[in-house]
């Protein structure tokens, strides 16, 4: 303990600098674009707005006891929350959100981003301090460039990834300690924290660290072969202990994860032979959307010393070849699809490509440290030659690029790159000539390194600003009080489970933040089976079900899924919905025909036939079978074209195409239709080709009210209102975002509210209201015969059902929802959830910790003997 205190006292300034320099450089760059605590512009760019702000808010709710860490009713219909934590919220930093109210989550993510970036710098300083025999301020310089590498800053909106960059240098340091000193403790706990923080990034770093161990092993097999077993045991025990969170996540992904990406081509898209050169210039940002190339920049000084490592004679040739082979694997991965997919779990990323590129950057800076420690004054001509060579390579690359290639590499980046290389040449030349004192040389070099890092950080941040934009704080914070107040009112008014949806949401994940259950969600962790079934029933959730949206479906699905409340900024004209309260811009409406969470039906309902690609027939067949009716709910009415504006209309009877006449203006088409009495009307708009939509939107103007939705992610039934008398209505659809859009035979769909009322009342009479706990639901019911109890709880193998205290088999209704067969009579039902694999994960966690304790004690004697016989400092 005394040694630790002495170490901290001796190095506190260096540690503070290693943490503080990247922290304040990034904070300053944010400040230059108007981002700071309480600023009008928030740090919420890209997925940070819809996902991470809400997910972190939900984690805070869990810490306050408002939901379980294992299951959440507030994630769409309900979800394995531990699995979501494992992907988005793991790590030691996340609990700090407790100190920020949900309304201030933009500030929480601002501080967490800076804290994680600073911690990455500090972690690398520890690694460098104990690895490289360099001037103490050189360690700080390397730590700063590491923490502000392009990958970290360009992907800073994906806040969960930064945790992995904190542990990477500690893991490599841990491997070195294990090999040289037989000390496995650092490696064990670094691996454990990495895997718990992010199993996704943990997979990549795990592979890289194994390759690094093999390089060290092969480099001196005779000396290092004794480390094979300790490394294997330490890694396996760390991985086993991490199963407390990895195992439930893996089992969940086996059920709900995406299929492996098929390899259809050899070379990756958008990459070219000049990528490595271009992306090593200062401030080069292309995009983090599709069509990007890897972010590998980590600084010109590390790059130069990395090259010096390979030309200096002080490093063994075998070691150079091994590390060159590791570089070759990473570079080949950038260009070859099979290798690229392998690093990412054989699954093609949804944007944010080459997610393992930081491993290249780390390898550069690691070898830079080894190269720098071999650098002597007499070597400065060789270093200068390398920097001049880099200038020539950058000049050649700029000259060779085509007119339409690398257009994102601005001439200013090229000039800055050349200028900083010249500055480094001057600093090292004057230092070699003893023109500076040692202290002056330190300060000057650190100043140049920090200036370069700041300029590159500025380029990355402005790249995000142009690519995604940093959302206004008001978009997140201003609606919060009103929504929260109305949601809280619904909670106070209900003792049993219900669902709520916001027609004017802040984002697709509002339910996480405000603590209500709905339909909409955007998450890589999801229940694909229930989402896929809901897509079949008209809630849009295409492809891999990353998204599911509530908007633009029918009353039939409102009732069936238990949507008891709607929030809206505009008056709502939906049959059965009555206004209950107002707050600021929002109004709360209550649905008289919402079903409870469960209901009884005939046993044959499980065999219902639901045709693909026909959601209205699917809705009809489902509701009729569940309610025991044979009713007709939907009719179709033709539209009469009234007028168009800025649109050329082509209609062949099956498809209608609108083409803009003037660019960047909406394409308007106005129709009229006669709605019969007692009908809820919808405009049916189904795209001819989803691929052409991009971010195309449509705004429906009806009775003076507007509602705007994004066509490719919301449903196809746009509400035109309820009419208790026959009415002629005229409405306008305004399309924007693409030059042309094709639609499949637009028409009006009407819902017979008399038939709808009959079916819903029958289902309500058979309803089983359930009171939900954090991860349970209980209720009482009476079955008039042997029946099937169907719930609107997404089916998951973690659900266990007991009737009258006895466990009964659980079945998946339509492979989507929890259902159970019940006997005639009065019963008490209890449903409880535990993530599959969680108990085994807990057992493995405890067991592996105990085993590692004894393993570490076993090596204590050898470590003591080694400490007495060596003076190696590590």
Word description of this protein:
There is one protein chain. The protein is of the alpha+beta class. Among the domains are: 175 residues, no CATH class; 117 residues, no CATH class; 106 residues, Jelly Rolls; 73 residues, Sandwich (Immunoglobulin-like). It is built from 29 helices and 32 strands. Strands 24-11-27-31-30 form a five-stranded antiparallel sheet. The two termini are 18 Å apart.
Question: How would you sum up this structure in a few lines?
Answer:
The chain is an alpha+beta fold and 874 residues long. It has 29 helices and 32 strands. A hairpin with a 2-residue loop joins strand 9 and strand 10.
Strand content: 15-25%
* Main β-sheet, spatial strand arrangement: 24-11-27-31-30
Q: What spatial form do the alpha-carbon principal axes imply? A: globular
C-alpha Rg (nearest Å):
31 Å
- Uncertain ranges: none
User: Between the first and last Cα atoms, what is the distance in angstroms?
Assistant: 18 Å
What is the structural class?
A: alpha+beta
- Number of DSSP-assigned strands: 32
Main sheet characteristics: 5 strands, antiparallel
Average residue-wise pLDDT? 94
Number of helices: 29
Helix content bin = 40-55%
Keywords: Membrane, Transmembrane, Transmembrane helix
Organism: Candidatus Enterococcus myersii
InterPro entries: Uncharacterised_YfhO
Protein name: YfhO family protein
């Amino acid at each position: 303990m005394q040694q630790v205190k002495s170490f901290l006292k001796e190095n506190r300034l260096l540690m503070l600098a290693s943490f503080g320099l990247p922290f304040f450089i990034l904070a300053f760059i944010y400040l230059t674009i108007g981002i700071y605590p309480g600023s009008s512009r928030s740090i919420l760019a890209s997925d940070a707005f819809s996902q991470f702000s809400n997910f972190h808010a939900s984690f805070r709710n869990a810490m306050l006891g408002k939901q379980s860490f294992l299951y959440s009713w507030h994630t769409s219909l309900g979800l394995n929350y531990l699995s979501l934590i494992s992907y988005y919220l793991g790590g030691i930093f996340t609990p700090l959100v407790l100190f920020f109210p949900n309304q201030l989550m933009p500030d929480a993510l601002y501080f967490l981003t800076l804290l994680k970036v600073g911690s990455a710098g500090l972690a690398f300083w520890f690694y460098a301090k104990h690895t490289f025999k360099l001037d103490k301020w050189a360690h700080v310089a390397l730590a700063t460039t590491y923490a502000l590498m392009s990958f970290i800053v360009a992907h800073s909106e994906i806040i969960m990834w930064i945790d992995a960059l904190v542990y990477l240098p500690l893991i490599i340091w841990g491997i070195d300690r294990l090999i040289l000193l037989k000390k496995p403790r650092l490696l064990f706990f670094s691996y454990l924290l990495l895997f718990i923080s992010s199993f996704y990034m943990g997979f990549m770093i795990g592979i890289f660290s194994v390759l690094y161990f093999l390089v060290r092993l092969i480099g001196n097999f005779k000396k290092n072969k004794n480390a094979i077993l300790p490394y294997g045991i330490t890694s396996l025990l760390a991985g086993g202990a991490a199963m407390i969170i990895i195992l439930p996540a893996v089992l969940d992904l086996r059920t709900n994860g995406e299929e492996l990406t098929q390899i259809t081509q050899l070379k990756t898209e958008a990459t070219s032979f000049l990528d490595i050169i271009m992306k090593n210039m200062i401030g080069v940002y292309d995009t983090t959307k599709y069509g990007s190339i890897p972010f590998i920049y980590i600084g010109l000084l590390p790059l130069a010393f990395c090259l010096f490592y390979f030309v200096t004679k002080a490093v063994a040739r075998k070691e150079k070849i091994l590390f060159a082979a590791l570089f070759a694997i990473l570079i080949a991965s950038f260009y070859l699809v099979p290798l690229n997919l392998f690093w990412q779990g054989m699954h093609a990323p949804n944007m944010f490509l080459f997610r393992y590129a930081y491993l290249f950057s780390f390898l550069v800076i690691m070898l830079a440290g080894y190269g720098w420690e071999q650098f002597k004054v007499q070597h400065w001509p060789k270093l200068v030659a390398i920097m001049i060579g880099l200038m020539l390579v950058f000049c050649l690359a700029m000259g060779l690029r085509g007119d339409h290639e690398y257009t994102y590499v601005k001439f200013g980046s090229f000039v800055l790159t050349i200028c900083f290389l010249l500055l480094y040449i001057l600093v090292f030349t004057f230092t070699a000539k003893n023109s500076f004192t040692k202290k002056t040389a330190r300060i000057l070099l650190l100043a140049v390194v920090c200036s370069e890092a700041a300029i590159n950080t500025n380029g990355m941040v402005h790249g995000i600003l142009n690519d995604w934009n940093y959302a206004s704080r008001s978009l997140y914070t201003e609606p919060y009080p009103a929504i929260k107040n109305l949601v809280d009112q619904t909670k106070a008014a209900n003792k049993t489970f219900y669902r709520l949806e916001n027609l004017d949401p802040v984002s697709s994940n509002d339910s996480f933040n405000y603590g209500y259950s709905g339909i909409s969600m955007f998450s890589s962790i999801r229940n694909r089976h229930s989402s896929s079934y809901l897509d079949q029933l008209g809630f849009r959730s295409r492809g891999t079900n990353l998204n599911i949206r509530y908007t633009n479906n029918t009353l039939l699905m409102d009732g069936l899924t238990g949507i008891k409340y709607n929030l809206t900024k505009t008056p709502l004209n939906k049959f059965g919905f009555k206004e209950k309260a107002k707050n600021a811009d929002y109004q709360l409406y209550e649905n008289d025909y919402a079903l409870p969470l469960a209901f009884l039906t005939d046993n044959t309902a499980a065999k219902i036939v639901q045709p693909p690609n026909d959601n209205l027939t699917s809705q009809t067949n489902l509701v009729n079978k569940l309610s025991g009716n044979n009713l007709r709910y939907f009719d179709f009415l033709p539209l009469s074209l009234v007028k168009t504006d800025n649109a050329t209309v082509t209609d062949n009877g099956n498809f209608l195409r609108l083409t803009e006449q003037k660019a960047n203006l909406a394409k308007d088409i106005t129709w009229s239709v006669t709605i019969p009495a007692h009908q809820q009307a919808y405009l049916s708009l189904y795209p001819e080709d989803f691929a052409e939509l991009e971010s195309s939107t449509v705004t429906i103007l009806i009775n003076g009210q507007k509602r705007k939705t994004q066509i490719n992610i919301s449903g196809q039934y746009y509400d035109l209102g309820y009419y208790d008398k026959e009415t002629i209505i005229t409405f306008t659809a305004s399309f924007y975002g693409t030059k042309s859009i094709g639609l499949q035979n637009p028409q009006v769909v009407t819902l017979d509210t008399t038939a709808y009322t009959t079916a819903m009342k029958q289902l309500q009479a058979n309803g089983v209201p359930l009171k939900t706990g954090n991860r349970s639901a209980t209720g009482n019911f009476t079955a008039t015969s042997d029946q099937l109890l169907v719930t609107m709880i997404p089916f998951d193998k973690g659900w266990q059902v007991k009737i009258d205290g006895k466990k009964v088999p659980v079945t998946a209704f339509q492979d989507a929802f929890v259902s159970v067969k019940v006997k005639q009579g009065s019963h008490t039902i209890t449903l409880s959830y535990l993530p599959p694999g969680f108990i085994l994960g807990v057992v493995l966690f405890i067991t592996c910790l105990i085993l590692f304790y004894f393993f570490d004690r076993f090596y204590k004697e050898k470590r003591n003997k080694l400490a007495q016989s060596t003076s190696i400092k590590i």
